[in-house]
Design brief:
Layout lengths: L12 H4 L6 E6 L8 E4 L3 E8 L15 E7 L7 E8 L7 E10 L10 E6 L11 E6 L8 E5 L2 E3 L18 H6 L25 E8 L13 E8 L5 E8 L12 E8 L12 E11 L5 H17 L1
Antiparallel strand pairs: 1-15, 2-5, 3-4, 4-15, 5-14, 6-11, 6-15, 7-8, 7-14, 8-9, 9-10, 11-12, 12-13
Length: 313
């Protein structure tokens, strides 16, 4: 179970979930590449301004139009591959929030090649795919760990206590995940028969939210600061799940929480689908908000409110 040190009451979810004090640092509808560097293995691809309506995919929920970023990995070689599209934040030493829309697609009939889509904060702009604090999730549920947190390329397993407080596992079979991420058919225009499994992210728009506090401590086993909390919302079910928090204070590798944001797409396995044209991820409507540090008086007020509520229980 996570514990929070008193000095970090300003990182309480209620504060970071409010946009009242936030300043939008930048937005990007990904209809063209104006600020990204793509770093990927040779057998991968990132296409900005891709019209995903050609695949029968509706407009993403937080924007207009159907142009976005299409990402693919392990296209033909049958070797694990990944790719990242990286952009600088343009600020530092401040809590911030990243949100974007994400669609995962896969080949149903012939058995897919299990692939992952997600996002990363603190990416170094050099690594091909996962770097910094990362969450990636499968579309088809073909893994024993469908939702994976990373510090750089080091996977953070469920025993690390960094996964969400309502989850009993990081597999799509978890009841919370199964309820939030519905089993759905592929868009009719694709001509695919069948559905995804409940608990998987395919064939639905997901909004990923990353709340980052460079100064936070959760588990407190080291003096290393910085947390990145990943939440996913399905627009098919209307439900949100906190997938977990990459926490520098739990020991092990320490990752930077600032510098760059990246979209990440990866095939971590060597298998290939017979219909690889259905294996891809779509990203759209990136928003980065800077959240100023609250004043010391606000910290004191929050601490007093927390103490009052604790005594009332």
């Amino acid at each position: 179970m996570h514990t929070r040190k008193a000095l970090l009451l300003f990182a309480a979810p209620g504060l970071l979930s409010s946009n009242a004090l936030a300043t939008i640092a930048f937005t990007d509808d990904l209809s063209a590449n104006t600020r990204f560097t793509v770093v990927g293995d040779a057998d991968s691809n990132a296409t900005f301004g891709y019209d995903y309506s050609a695949d029968g995919i509706p407009s993403a929920p937080n924007g207009t139009g159907t142009l976005g970023l299409k990402m693919e990995a392990n296209l033909a070689n049958g070797v694990a591959a990944e790719v990242a599209a990286v952009t600088p934040l343009g600020f530092s030493n401040s809590p911030y929030r990243v949100t974007f829309d994400m669609w995962s697609n896969f080949s149903i009939a012939d058995g897919s090649s299990t692939e992952f889509a997600g996002g990363s904060v603190g990416h170094d702009g050099v690594a091909t795919g996962r770097n910094g604090a990362t969450l990636i999730a499968t579309g088809d549920g073909g893994s024993s760990r469908d939702y994976r947190l990373y510090k750089n390329k080091g996977e953070q397993f469920f025993a690390s206590l960094q996964y969400g407080p309502t989850l009993s596992s990081n597999n799509g079979s978890d009841p919370i995940l199964s309820a939030a991420f519905l089993g759905l058919p592929a868009p009719a225009a694709q001509g695919q028969a069948g559905t995804s499994d409940a608990g998987d992210t395919a064939f639905q728009w997901i909004t990923m939210q990353i709340d980052v506090d460079p100064f936070a401590v959760l588990q407190g086993t080291t003096n290393d600061l910085g947390t990145a909390t990943f939440t996913m919302t399905s627009h098919a079910s209307g439900l949100s799940v906190e997938i977990g928090t990459v926490d520098n204070s739990n020991g092990g590798t320490v990752v930077g929480m600032e510098g760059n944001f990246a979209f990440v797409y990866a095939d971590l396995f060597s298998s290939l689908a017979n219909d690889p044209q259905y294996q891809f991820g779509i990203f759209d409507n990136l928003v980065v908000e800077q959240i100023p540090e609250p004043s010391s008086s606000l910290l004191i007020g929050l601490a007093g409110a927390a103490l009052f509520l604790r005594r009332r229980r």
